[in-house]
Amino acid sequence: MSISDGYIDVLMGDITRERVDAIVNAANSSLRGGGGVDGAIHWVAGPELLQACLAIGGCPPGEARITPGFRLPARFVIHTVGPIWRGGAQGEDEVLANCYRNSMQLARAGKLRTVTFPSISTGAYGFPLQRAAAIAVRELRRAVMDHEEFDAVRVICHGRETYDAYARLVEEYMD
Q1: Which end of the chain is more exposed for a tag (fewer CB within 10 A), N or C?
Q2: Can you tell me the distance from the alpha carbon of 2 to that of 16, in angstroms, rounded to the nearest whole number?
């Protein structure tokens, strides 16, 4: 199942199987691995990813760091730390937007042409799915429209509810 507006592809699947230049990890600020997509990426990449993350020393919310992909099919992992939802009045929207902006900036700097994102902060961090999807689609479309060097920017969704939220937004741009 997938949909594309010519700028962003949205599909169901497993981010750890993506054969792209980089996958984006919805990491925690210690970059030591955790649950959800972060734990899955660390598991598949192997212990070398943890060692590379420890050498970086962490990442504040909204920023991004890059490591090799090690045992993943993706060449690189861009780690970004999304905001924990605290009701929406603590700058959560801007921090989440910065996750996408800074991840795409790292991809451009590394001349990476294919990048796959998860739905950042909508799992254990509790960011409302529809609100997060709107921010993600807006920021990713803007990055792709402003920088033509990208061949593919994807959001891979784990679950039908997440897919439907992103697909609806992408369809709106197609009308």
Answers
A1: C
A2: 17
* 13 token code pair: 């699947």
Domain that holds residue 110: 2-174
Per-residue H/E/C for the chain = CEEECCCCEEEECCHHHCCCCEEEEEECCCCCCCCHHHHHHHHHHCHHHHHHHHHHCCCCCCCEEEEECCCCCCCEEEEEECCCCCCCCCCHHHHHHHHHHHHHHHHHHCCCCEEEECCCCCCCCCCCHHHHHHHHHHHHHHHHHHCCCCCEEEEEECCHHHHHHHHHHHHHHHC
The answer to whether 164 is a known catalytic residue is no
Catalytic-role residue among 5, 14, 21, 38: 38
The reported pTM is: 0.96
- CB crowding 55-84: b at 16 or more within 10 Å, else e: eeebbebbbbbbbebbebebbbbbbbbbbe
Question: Total structural domains in the chain?
Answer: 1
List pLDDT tens digits, range 63-104: 999 999 999 999 999 999 999 999 999 999 999 999 999 999
Cβ–Cβ under 8 Å, residues 24 and 78: yes
**pLDDT band at 20; cut points 50, 70, 90:** very high
